[in-house]
C-alpha cells in the first residue's frame, strides 16, 4: 500500500515548502514579486516566528545552506548564538546545579542568532527590501492570525511552563486560557520589534532600544544576557561539509551542527545494497538505525564548536572509516550509544528554490517548545533555551565556555546530481533529524520515490527527546515490523500512524525545468509553487 497524503506540488518558476501554510504563502508571494530564494526564506521564517511561535521565532537560532547559481557555489551560514560573556560552569555549579536549567532566565545563556542571519543572508543574496520581506510577519503579529491546531495542542502541553513568566502567560494564554484552533492571537509587542528590524536592519535588534530592553528584561528575571553580548554577535559564512552517495554530492552545515552524523550514515549505508530491500521493511530500518548508532557515537565524541577544540571532519567522513563502521553492523541490535543527552525537537525547516535556480535550506529553532518560555519585556521576543544543551562537565566537548556556540541539532541539507541541485531538504526533530534526512535521501535516490511519498512514508525514531531517559526505537503504526525488530534486540515502541514526534520534513526536487515539492502531513505546512 502506498501512503501518500497529497499530490506532489509541481511548478516551474519557483517553490517554497515550510511547516505552516501561512508562512509558505508569504514566501511564495515574495517569489512572485521577484524576490530571491533567500528573500523568500527570510519572509517564511519571520512569519513562522509569529504564526508558529511554539517552534521558532526571532529569539532563536538558524542554520542555512545557500546555493548561488551565478557563482555556482554552496555556502553555509551559521546563525547560532554564542554563550554570553558572563556564563561559566562554576557559576551554575556553585548554585548547586548539575546542569543548566531547561527553562527560565538561566536557560538564556546564548545570544539569539536568527535575526542577524536573516540580515547577513539578505546583504549577500537579497533583491527586495527587508521591509517587504518582514511585512507579512508584522501584519500577522499586529492584526492577528488564526491559531493552528498544532499551536493549540502544544500550548496545552506547555501551559504550566508558559505560566511561570507573567508576560509569556499573558501573550500565549490570553484571558488565562489555552487558545482554541481558529482563535485570533495578536502579538503587538513583537510586531513593533519586527518593524524596528525592517526599518534599521540588524542594528534594530542587536543594538539600540530593542537590545537594551531584551537585556534588561533577562537581567531583571535573574539571567545573564547583556546588551554587550547582543551587540557583539555576528553570523558566520563558511564552507559546507560534504560527501558522495551513489554518485550524488551531499552537503550539510559543518559543526557545531550535527549534519556530520547524517553524512556519516549515508557513507555507511553506501556499503549495502539498499535498493534490493523494502523501504518499509525490517532489514532497511535495522540497517539505518544501526548506522545511526555508530554515527551518533562519533558525533557525541567530538561535536561542539570547532573553535574550541579539534574536530577531525575529514577522518570521520572518509569512505574507509565508513566501511569499517559498516562492518560492525550485524543481525542483532547494538546497545544504545553513549550517555543520554538533553535533546530538543521543536524546530522548523524551510526550503526554497527560485526561478533562477538559486536554492536555500534553512533550519530555525527555539530548541524546546516555546524555548525558555521567557518573553524579553516589551520587545515581545520569546527567547530560546538552546544554551541549556551545554554540559557543565569539564570533560565533555560541549561544555559551557564564554563565547562558545553550543552543539546544535539543526542541519539543513542539499543533494546535487551532475553538479546541480537535485534535492533541497531538511526536517525538525532533534535526534530524528539525521534519521529522517537519511530516510528522505535513500527513499528518493535508492527507491525512486517522489518527494511527497518519501516524506509521507512511515518513519521511525531511534533516540530520545528532552525529558525522556530512554532511547527507544519508536515506529509509526504503519510500519508492521515491530516484532521482527524487537526480536533483533531493538526496544520497540509503537506510536501513531503519522506521529508528530517523527518531525516535520520539507523537500524540493529539481527536475530539469520543473520543481517537485513536498511537505510533511505531520506538520501544518504546504509546498507551494508557481
Q: Biggest sheet: strands, sense, closure?
A: 7 strands, antiparallel
The side-by-side strand order for the widest beta sheet comes to 1-18-17-13-12-9-8
- Principal-axis shape equals globular
Percent helix, as a range, is 25-40%
Give the termini distance in whole angstroms: 31 Å
- SSE-based structural type: alpha+beta
In summary, what is this structure?
The chain is built from 19 helices and 19 strands.
Tell me what the structure shows:
This protein has about 525 residues and is α+β, with helices and mostly antiparallel strands. It has a single domain (about 1-145, about 185-470, about 505-530), classed as Glutamine Phosphoribosylpyrophosphate, subunit 1, domain 1, CATH 3.60.20. Helix content is about 35%, strand content about 20%. It contains 19 helices and 19 strands. The chain has helices spanning about 20-30, 35-50, 90-95, 115-125, 130-145, 150-155, 160, 165-170, 190-200, 205, 210-220, 225-230, 260-270, 280-300, 315, 320-325, 430-445, 450-455, 480-485; strands at about 10, 15-20, 60-70, 75-80, 145, 185, 235-240, 240-245, 250, 345-355, 360-365, 415, 420-425, 460-465, 470-475, 490-495, 505-510, 515-520, 525-530. It has a 7-stranded antiparallel beta sheet. A 7-stranded antiparallel beta sheet has the order 7-4-3-11-10-2-19, covered by helices on one side. It has a 3-stranded mixed beta sheet with strand order 14-15-16. A hairpin with a 2-residue loop joins β17 and β18. α2 (about 35-50) packs antiparallel against α4 and α13 (about 260-270) packs across α16. The radius of gyration is 21 Å and the shape is globular. The relative contact order is 0.19. The model has no long low-confidence stretch (mean pLDDT about 95).
Amino acid at each position: 500500500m502506498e501512503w501518500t497524503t497529497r499530490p506532489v506540488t509541481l511548478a516551474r518558476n519557483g517553490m517554497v515548502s515550510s511547516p505552516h501554510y501561512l508562512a509558505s504563502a508569504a514566501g511564495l508571494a515574495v517569489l512572485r514579486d521577484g524576490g530571491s530564494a533567500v528573500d523568500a526564506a527570510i519572509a517564511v521564517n519571520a512569519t513562522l516566528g509569529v504564526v508558529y511561535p511554539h517552534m521558532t521565532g526571532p529569539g532563536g537560532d538558524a542554520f542555512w545552506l545557500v546555493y548561488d547559481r551565478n557563482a555556482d557555489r554552496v555556502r553555509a551560514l551559521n546563525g547560532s548564538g554564542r554563550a554570553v560573556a558572563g556564563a561559566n560552569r562554576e557559576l551554575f555549579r556553585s548554585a548547586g546545579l548539575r546542569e543548566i536549567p531547561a527553562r527560565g532566565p538561566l536557560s538564556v545563556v546564548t545570544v539569539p542568532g536568527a535575526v542577524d542571519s536573516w540580515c547577513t543572508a539578505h546583504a549577500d543574496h537579497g533583491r527586495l527590501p527587508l521591509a517587504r520581506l518582514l511585512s507579512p510577519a508584522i501584519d500577522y503579529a499586529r492584526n492577528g492570525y488564526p491559531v493552528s491546531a498544532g499551536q493549540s495542542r502544544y500550548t496545552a502541553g506547555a501551559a504550566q511552563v508558559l505560566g511561570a513568566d507573567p508576560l509569556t502567560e499573558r501573550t500565549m494564554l490570553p484571558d488565562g486560557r489555552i487558545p482554541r484552533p481558529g482563535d485570533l492571537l495578536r502579538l503587538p509587542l513583537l510586531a513593533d520589534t519586527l518593524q524596528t528590524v525592517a526599518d534599521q536592519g540588524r542594528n534594530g535588534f542587536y543594538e539600540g532600544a530593542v537590545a537594551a530592553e531584551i537585556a534588561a528584561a533577562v537581567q531583571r528575571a535573574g539571567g545573564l544576557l547583556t546588551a554587550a553580548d547582543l551587540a557583539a554577535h555576528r553570523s558566520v559564512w563558511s564552507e559546507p561539509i560534504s560527501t558522495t552517495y551513489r554518485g550524488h554530492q551531499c552537503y550539510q552545515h559543518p559543526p557545531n551542527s550535527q549534519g556530520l552524523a547524517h553524512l556519516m550514515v549515508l557513507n555507511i549505508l553506501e556499503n549495502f545494497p539498499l535498493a534490493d530491500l523494502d523501504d518499509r521493511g525490517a532489514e532497511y530500518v535495522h540497517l539505518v538505525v544501526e548506522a545511526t548508532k555508530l554515527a551518533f557515537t562519533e558525533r557525541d565524541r567530538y561535536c561542539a564548536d570547532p573553535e574550541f577544540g579539534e574536530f577531525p571532519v575529514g577522518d570521520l567522513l572518509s569512505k574507509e572509516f565508513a566501511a569499517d563502521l559498516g562492518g560492525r553492523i550485524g543481525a542483532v541490535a547494538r546497545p544504545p550509544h553513549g550517555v543520554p543527552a538533553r535533546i530538543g525537537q521543536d524546530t522548523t525547516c524551510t526550503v526554497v528554490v527560485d526561478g533562477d535556480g538559486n536554492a536555500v535550506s534553512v533550519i530555525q529553532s527555539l530548541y524546546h517548545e516555546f524555548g525558555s518560555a521567557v518573553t524579553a519585556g516589551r520587545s515581545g521576543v520569546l527567547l530560546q533555551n538552546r544554551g541549556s544543551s551545554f554540559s557543565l562537565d569539564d570533560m565533555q566537548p560541549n561544555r559551557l565556555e564564554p563565547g562558545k556556540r553550543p552543539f546544535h541539532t539543526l542541519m539543513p541539507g542539499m543533494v546535487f546530481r551532475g553538479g546541480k541541485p537535485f534535492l533541497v531538504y531538511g526536517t525538525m526533530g532533534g535526534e530524528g533529524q539525521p534519521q529522517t534526512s537519511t530516510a528522505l535521501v535513500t527513499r528518493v535516490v535508492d527507491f525512486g520515490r517522489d518527494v511527497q511519498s518519501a516524506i509521507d512514508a512511515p518513519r521511525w525514531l531511534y533516540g530520545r527527546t528532552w525529558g525522556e531517559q530512554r532511547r527507544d526505537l519508536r515506529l509509526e503504526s504503519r510500519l508492521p515490523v515491530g516484532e521482527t525488530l524487537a526480536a533483533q534486540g531493538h526496544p520497540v515502541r509503537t506510536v501513531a500512524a503519522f506521529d508528530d514526534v517523527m518531525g516535520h520534513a520539507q523537500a524540493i526536487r529539481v527536475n530539469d525545468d520543473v520543481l517537485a515539492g513536498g511537505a510533511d502531513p505531520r506538520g501544518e505546512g504546504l509546498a507551494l509553487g508557481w
